[in-house]
Amino acid sequence: MLQGCNSPFSATVVDQLHAAGAVIAGKTNLDEFAMGSHSINSVHGAVTQPGPDPDGLRTVGGSSGGSALAVATDQCFAALGTDTGGSVRLPAAWTGTVGFKPSYGMVSRWGVVAYANSLDTVGVIANSVASSRNVYNVVKGHDSHDPTSISSQTRARIQSHIQARNERRYARPLRIGIPNEYFINELHPSINRSWMSAVQYLNDRQHSLVSVSLPTTRAALSAYYVLAPAEASSNLAKYDGVRYGNKAPSSSTNADDQEGRDEGNVLFSRTRGQNFSAEVRRRILLGSYTLSSTAIDNYFIRAQKVRRMVQSDFNHVFDLSHPLLPTKEDPESESQVDVIITPTATRPAPLLSELGSGEADVSPARKYCDDLYTVSASLAGLPAISVPVPLYDGENEKRDEPSVGVQIIGQYGDDELVLVVAEELERLIEMGIFGETGKH
Asked: What is the spatial distance between Cα 37 and Cα 47, in angstroms, rounded to a whole number?
């Protein structure tokens, strides 16, 4: 659709990096219009990594798979990606890198091709938490061009709110939440063991583990795949071959035949049908239907209600109240937590043969399930980071497979605490003792 298109201006985050002295090496491959969880829906072909044998390639996750692979193969210091429902965290988990999604509105979206405006967040992929923080510190800040960017005054209010919490929590060990609803049948046993080893390690460092309930988690994935396509169908309406995008050529060279054909196949219909991939067309159709007068109440409005319930679940379990919502009246409770730790994905990186090509008849619903653990934080706009951890079998012996990710989620605006906990977990990996806690 946009082949040969050159943007007339740079995104704000790119300008900020240039101003800080960064060298922009280039653009990376990704799912078309960021629609996908495996980076296989691209006009440039799938993004892959070596599998268990020479003939088997693994997916790198998506949609920001090219960014993750560039970092994993040391082609760059760090890379940017847009995280709508896990598009930075999932590739990071499957490539052994760190993927950080800041709180919604903390980083400018100006210059980013929109997928879902209320969800899109510019994130950072790097080889360490420190590198992610360095890039984040450069690109965060208010941008007057972006209407969703948090203002400087509101940022100051958020920091004041967090500072008050920090003074109250001074010297108290962290309370780490373990969601009951994340123990599901689809969770790969080895990932479950790696997850439990990670939280047990933190428990051994005097941090307490608290079982929490996020009941709306069960409906979060369905709500996401109603809301995101709905916003995408609106955002992509301008790509019609007239205002934006390349015009599709007619299938007939005869003027009379062409005129007759176009009576029932208008320009924008032919252009969108030929220039959008199957996955993009699928999501546009889904979004258009859920916004139609006959379906909006049953789908879109209900999905919005689920989204508010997801946010409410998080607000109920976090000790820190949401800085942009009315303050909780409940006093600090032992059942409330500072961060939540979950797996990033339900399974190790699948083989490309398990997914097929971008046009294959593999069930889209099965692919969407790989976003199960990442969409909730996106719906609530919370900061979340995926940290790579080794994959272990039943005897805690490291498996000859790619690492997997453990996800750390914090309250809105509490990005720094998320990064601090991620650094502590990262030190465990560097010390080479990860997995020993599983023997206790």
From this structure: 11
User: Rounded distance, CA 232 to CA 373, Å?
Assistant: 21
For residue 37, say if its preceding peptide bond is cis, omega within 30 degrees of 0.
no
- Contacts of residue 32, defined as CB under 8 A and 6 or more positions apart, other chains included, come to 1, 41, 42, 43, 276, 277, 279, 280
Q: How many CB atoms lie within 10 A of CB 79?
A: 26
Query: b/e string for 129-151 if b means 16 or more Cβ within 10 A?
Result: bebbbebbebbbbebeebeebbe
From residue 133, give the alpha-carbon distance in Å to each of 94, 126, 150, 415: 20, 9, 19, 10
15 contacts 344 by C-beta, under 8 angstroms: no
Q: CB neighbours (10 Å) of residue 413?
A: 26
Under a CB-based contact definition with an 8 Å cutoff, are residues 184 and 178 in contact? no
pLDDT, tens digit, 9 for 90 and up, residues 305-343: 999 999 999 999 999 999 998 876 555 566 799 999 999
Provide the angle, in degrees to the nearest 10, between the axes of the packed helices 217-235 and 278-290: 100
pLDDT in tens, 262-308: 445 566 777 777 778 888 899 999 999 999 999 999 999 999 999 99
What contacts 347, CB < 8 A, 6 or more positions away?
186, 188, 191, 370
Strands 57-59 and 48-50, how do they pair? antiparallel
Residues paired with residue 240 on neighbouring β-strands, in sequence order: none
- Alpha-carbon gap, residue 149 to 129, rounded angstroms: 24
Radius of gyration, CA atoms only, the chain: 22
Contacts of 186 (CB under 8 A, 6+ apart): 346, 347, 369, 372
Beta bridge partners of 405: 388
Distances from the Cα of 428 to the Cα of 96, 170, 201, 384, angstroms:
15, 23, 8, 19
**Cα–Cα distance, 203 to 211 (Å, whole number):** 13
Of the candidates 395, 383, 399, the residue with the CA atom closest to the CA atom of residue 349 = 399
**Residue recorded with tokens 């950072």:** 124
Q: What is the pTM of this model?
A: 0.90
Q: Pick from 437, 418, 438, 439: which is nearest to 204 by CA?
A: 437
